[in-house]
Design a protein that fits this description.
The complex is a heterodimer of chains A (110) and B (114). With 110 residues, chain A is mostly beta strands. Helices cover 0% and strands 45% of the residues of chain A. In chain A, the strands form three sheets. In chain A, strands 2, 5, 6, 9, 10 and 11 form a six-stranded mixed β-sheet that branches. Chain A has a three-stranded antiparallel β-sheet with strand order 3-8-7, with no helix packed on it. A two-stranded antiparallel sheet of chain A has the order 1-4. In chain B, strand 4 and strand 5 (42-49) form a beta hairpin. The radius of gyration of chain B is 13 Å and the shape is globular. The termini of chain B are far apart. The chains are: A mainly beta (110), B mainly beta (114).
């Protein structure tokens, strides 16, 4: 079974400080991994996906198969980054829906 | 460009009442989903429809039924609402279930059962 673990419910950082939101997964095959973000009172939206290897709003995430992790990083946090962040996994092996972690609320303090 | 639209946005129900949450997408997507979002529990899949004419249970289907009315619409029904069903419900859609498909979410429906 697939599982996504986000160990931190809440992460508070000061503006300008580096941010790392942790995501670990459990899946025996090759997964497809995503980060979704939900700003206050808005719908969830895709932030980035590992297959794109892109940087969105200064955020990056690298899939580490050895550590089964997909941590989200940003070198300098901004106040507008305050939001709920969800890590999600889809199995490569079959047609299955995304499995989401429980989410981490990021609070950037001015 | 509406994307995924769900109604109602807010609803208060009494225990035992029934109601249907409506969802429609205008992106010609094959797959649609219903998730619930609860504090500390994240997003949990209730039901999904891989394609028109099919529906499957997700992680937390008990107390819910769904109908894939056509390719555009996917409704979620609570037959006899319980306080444990107080939650924020999100409908979502994607081109399909296969890798590479992005899921697009609606704005959410806030449901309170008293």
């Amino acid at each position: 079974a697939q599982r996504v673990t986000q160990p931190e419910k809440l992460l508070s950082v000061f503006k300008g400080a580096p941010v790392e939101l942790k995501c670990n997964y459990s899946y025996s095959g090759s997964p497809e991994l995503f980060w979704y973000v939900q700003y206050s009172r808005q719908r969830l939206q895709l932030l980035l996906r590992h297959i794109s290897r892109e940087s969105i709003k200064g955020f990056t995430a690298d899939l580490n198969k050895g550590e089964t992790s997909f941590h989200l990083k940003k070198p300098f946090a901004q106040e507008e980054d305050s939001a709920m962040y969800y890590c999600a996994l889809r199995a490569y092996s079959g047609n299955t829906p995304l499995v989401f972690g429980k989410g981490t609320r990021l609070s950037v303090i001015a | 460009n509406a994307g995924v639209t769900q109604t109602p946005k807010f609803q208060v129900l009494k225990t035992g009442q029934s109601m249907t949450l409506q969802c429609a997408q205008d992106m010609n997507h094959n797959s649609m989903y219903w998730y619930r979002q609860d504090p500390g529990m994240g997003l949990r899949l209730i039901y999904y429809s891989a394609s028109e004419g099919t529906t499957d249970k997700g992680e937390v289907p008990n107390g819910y039924n769904v109908s894939r009315l056509n390719k555009r619409e996917f409704s979620l029904r609570l037959e006899s609402a319980a306080p444990s069903q107080t939650s924020v419900y999100f409908c979502a859609s994607s081109e399909g279930l296969a890798k590479g498909n992005t899921i697009y979410f609606g704005e959410g429906s806030w449901l309170t059962v008293v």
